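Reopening this one. Same input as before:
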Amino acid sequence: MIQDLAVFWPALAVGLLVAATHVPLGIQVLNRGIVFIDLAVAQIAGLGVILGDALGFEHHGAAVQAFAFGSAIAGALLLNLTERLWPQVQEAVIGVVFILAANAALLLLAANPHGAEHLKDLLAGQVLWVTPGVLPAVALASAAILAAWWWLRERFFYVLFACAVTVSVQLVGIYLVFATLIVPALATRHLARARVPVCYAISALGYGVGLSLSALSDLPTGPLIVCTLSALGILFFLTFRPRIPT
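Same output, byte for byte:
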């Protein structure tokens, strides 16, 4: 029991830190109508990690992190440019960028004997492998992103988004990044008040229940949290949706 708790609390803490930045960004993404931007930017950040690893740098070293941040910010700036040039097809452009980054990653991993494992980690994440030692750095990065978000807002949306996604995708994986960003925002889109606190509550409950179910069932943690978070989002929306006048 004590050993399970030692694994559980860092995973829950990192989930809450991911939600801290992704909730306000997710609401903004939904308002902008560019829902799949996080998949594209997360995939680009993952491509940077794979590229750095392929060039022989330490997998979790500073050089690979620089590749991840550089790739994500470059991708975010590119999407910012395409939004200004072709706003009417921005969602399609985001989809193409995602597909290109995903297939470039597959090509880089083709000759890697551990390629399938790396790809699984990138998609589903390894949240249970998070150690307490990484939490201060993640907390500091999350606080800096939140402070910049509330101060700068629209002006640096894409860059801040890239920073948030780059930090989170290596901790929880692309699927959980997308779920944390979109599910709470989608479930609460009809709320006029207290939307952000409710989003945080859904996220916290999703991570807590998902981690608990994973410990009890021994099922993969990342996918189980995604399913739990989605179920809670659907339940909330159906329970508190606006009544249609008859």
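So the earlier flakiness isn't reproducible anymore. For the record, The CA atoms of residues 211 and 217 lie 10 Å apart.
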